[in-house]
Design goal:
By secondary structure, the chain is an alpha/beta fold. It has 12 helices and 8 strands.
């Protein structure tokens, strides 16, 4: 994706924030497996959606001031030649800026002090964090760990779940995303499905899930491409979640 795609995603998200609110999205950390071994690292999906970066221990911090102007900062790990011999090359500030479009690149060593200054300023009353969990018993991710820090050290800050905002944004695909799906062949994958299966998927989505006043505003080929890649054993559970999101959207 081009840098404008990620910048556009952030801009649409910032419009959902009110003046005097903060947003912190974490890229994730290594998950310990055994001994000195960790599981393969996968960057948090919402962090990639907003920055395009696939690196660990990074943070996107957005600050919406009283005049509705937004400052955005991207915190990345500082260079460490010794550590990089074992854990791989770290993203450089100029690379992070080129990929994400964020101009203010800082090192993670400054994040705690920067956030403390913002929290103590008295200008901000809420922070949004990505608090998604697949199940309630999931282990804490970086965002949940930071949530505990906020609740302990800055109890006057209200907590918002950025995952709810991001789900609404990600539900509506941008033209470049649709084109990427086409290049990946998802439309051809759907075409290979039995006709009855294709009709069932699209009809269920458009006639059962969507409110009547929304049907004409949705792109049927997009649904065909998007849902052709969903594993059918998880299809019903996904539809229930999808239906909940659409109901929330229609309520607004």
């Amino acid at each position: 994706m081009e840098v404008g795609y990620y910048a556009g995603n952030r801009e649409r998200l910032y419009k959902k924030l009110c003046p005097g609110e903060l947003l912190a999205i974490f890229s994730g950390e290594d998950v310990w497996k055994t001994g000195d071994e960790c599981y393969p690292f996968f960057t948090e999906r919402n962090f990639v959606y907003l920055t395009g970066l696939r690196c660990k221990s990074a943070v996107l911090l957005a600050i919406k001031d009283a005049d509705s102007s937004v400052q955005e900062r991207l915190y990345i790990l500082p260079p460490d030649a010794h550590a990089e011999r074992w854990t791989g090359t770290r993203v450089k500030p100029h690379e992070a800026e080129a990929i994400s479009g964020v101009k203010d690149i800082r090192f993670t060593t400054a994040f705690d002090s920067d956030f403390k200054a913002l929290a103590y300023s008295g200008n901000y009353g809420r922070i949004y964090l990505d608090l998604y969990r697949f199940t309630p018993s999931d282990a804490d991710r970086a965002s949940h760990k930071f949530l505990h820090v906020v609740q302990r050290e800055y109890p006057y800050l209200q907590i918002g779940n950025a995952d709810a905002l991001l789900r609404e944004l990600r539900l509506i695909k941008q033209p470049c995303e649709i084109e990427a799906l086409r290049r990946a062949g998802y439309d051809r994958n759907f075409a290979r499905e039995p006709p009855t299966r294709r009709r069932t998927i699209v009809n269920v989505l458009l006639c059962d899930l969507l409110p009547p006043n929304h049907i004409n505003h949705w792109n049927q080929p997009l649904f065909q491409m998007y849902f052709s890649v969903i594993h059918y054993t998880a299809f019903r559970a996904f539809l229930r979640e999808f239906k909940r999101i659409l109901r929330n959207l229609s309520a607004h």
